[in-house]
Design a protein that fits this description.
Chain lengths: ~260, ~240
């Protein structure tokens, strides 16, 4: 398929995704609110930019990132590759023989989260609303670290085969405890950052990694164990974002004491 | 015009910086760890340029169109004061943005396969198709419900922690009763519902509502809609798995 054909296809698909949203927005605007939209032309141009941008973004991902990401996930989970690093051994592979997988999971989780468009959107809004006290980069890095920890832990879980709900429940307990100690301002934003992280860029790559792992590790079923990485990736940012706020608060307290 | 171009090229630089880590990670693993050549370099470069341009346009359009309209509609709804229409809008937005979400369609289809392999439904494609679309509508409904609940919370000023913790408790309890095959999918379904267009729009709506209601702090009350939207599908999907 040629480039332009592919681009047209993806643009059409994006428009199809956006249509329900546009219908709801304008339906309510004209049917219920019944007021003219200020700067209607500008809003419409903005929508065109959003659709065009998203289509280009998806096209680029499909052309560049996903094929190579999937290929790497396959290669990294390939038993031959893992054996090459663990040295010749007659014993089965142990969980730490997969260390490149964990490092890759960490690195790819962090780097794709930095580029996640919906996270950028939320960080911009949070920065604006908080009057600058929540930095765009601080939030994005906190979330990225959370996703990175989540995905590498999730990869470890697939290798070891522990039940997923142990981790999720433990994560919930940490979140609940942190909620009581974290600055109040950050709590809703932290909860939100869980859902924000996992959309366009992260999901397909992470899903490929999970599936690749579940297929290679003996005793795992791709259908059952391949899932769950996304859940990890959306739980741990909550913890790291609250931790980020707690550390920031601690620092200001400390500097006040030394003053 | 000059100003616009300048802003565009500035945000282009920003996008390049945002994407640099991915390039570094992939290059490092491919060349150093796996020691493989980079395949199909030309296509890769074209794709990368598309990603940079796409991210730039998206962010640019976000500030121009999506954020302002989300904020202004929230303000108008608050001014109009009609609870019914606001909640209907919230519900429609939640359902409308989720039902067509490609990631959800993919996950639902995989879930049907899991269910069939686990013997929960018949192996036939027809049964799987029905199961998948049932799941999709369940998730879409649950997101609509979640946005309505989240908007109500903003209006009433309920503290978010108790609602989220309550939701977690429900998830934990249901985990013990739901069929084992569905648990992974249910946990994942929370993450996949919130798409790239939904998130900015819903965030603008929440923050806009909280800013236009007296006594609400946009930082404390404005955020949290996404959190509801990613928690409630877990509960509904597990319920779906238990009932089907």
């Amino acid at each position: 398929m040629g480039f332009w054909e592919q681009f047209a296809d993806i643009t059409l698909a994006t428009i199809k995704d956006v249509i329900p949203i546009v219908v709801i927005l304008f339906g309510f605007q004209f049917g219920v609110i019944r007021r003219r939209i200020a700067n209607l032309r500008k809003v419409l141009v903005g929508f065109v930019y959003v659709v065009l941008g998203l289509a280009l973004f998806l096209l680029g991902l499909e052309k560049a990132l996903f094929p190579i990401g999937r290929l790497m996930a396959e290669q990294l989970t390939d038993p031959d590759f893992i054996r090459a690093w663990s040295g010749p051994s007659d014993m089965g592979l142990r969980w730490y023989d997969y260390f490149w997988v964990y490092i890759f999971a960490f690195a790819i989780g962090a780097s794709t989260t930095i580029a996640e468009p919906s996270l950028i959107a939320v960080a911009m809004k949070a920065n604006e609303v908080s009057g600058g006290s929540i930095g765009v980069w601080g939030l994005r890095i906190a979330v990225a670290i959370g996703v990175a920890i989540g995905i590498s832990l999730g990869a470890w879980r697939i290798v070891t085969g522990y039940p997923i709900y142990w981790f999720i429940i433990a994560g919930y307990i940490i979140v609940v405890i942190q909620t009581f100690f974290a600055p109040k301002m950050i709590v809703p934003l932290a909860y939100d950052s869980g859902g924000v992280t996992t959309s366009t860029v992260t999901v397909p790559l992470v899903a490929a990694l999970g599936l690749g792992l579940a297929e290679t590790v003996p005793g795992r079923s791709a259908l059952i164990d391949g899932f769950g990485l996304i859940a990890f990736a959306s739980l741990f940012p909550i913890i790291t974002v609250m931790a980020y706020a707690q550390i920031a608060e601690l620092r200001t307290k400390r500097s006040k004491i030394t003053d | 015009m000059r100003v616009g171009l300048l802003a565009l090229s500035q945000s282009m630089l920003g996008s390049l910086r945002d994407l640099a880590p991915i390039v570094l990670v992939i290059a490092f693993f491919q060349l150093v760890v796996l020691q493989q050549p980079i395949p199909d370099f030309f296509n890769l470069l074209v794709g990368f340029l598309c990603v940079v341009a796409g991210l730039t346009f998206f962010i640019y359009g976000l500030e121009m169109g999506l954020f302002p309209i989300g904020g202004s509609m929230a303000y108008e709804f608050a001014r109009k004061g009609s609870l019914f229409w606001l909640l209907l809008f919230a519900f429609a937005l939640g359902v409308g943005t989720t039902v067509a979400e490609p990631a959800l369609i993919a996950v639902a289809a995989e879930a049907a396969q899991v269910a069939a392999a686990g013997g929960m439904i018949a192996m036939e494609p027809q049964a799987q198709l029905e199961y998948a679309s049932g799941l999709r509508y369940t998730v879409a409904f649950s997101v609509g419900f979640a946005i309505v609940l989240g908007v109500l919370r903003i209006l009433k000023g309920w503290p978010i922690q108790y609602m989220i913790i309550g939701g977690y408790l429900l998830v934990v309890i249901m985990t013990f009763f739901a069929p084992k095959e569905i648990i992974g999918i249910a946990y994942d379904s929370g993450g996949v519902t919130t798409s790239t267009i939904t998130v900015p729009l819903v965030t603008a709506l929440g923050v806009g509502l909280a800013s236009s209601i007296k006594g609400r702090n946009p930082m404390i009350d404005g955020f949290g809609l996404i959190a509801f939207a990613s928690l409630s599908p877990m509960i509904f999907v597990m319920a779906y798995g238990m009932l089907m």
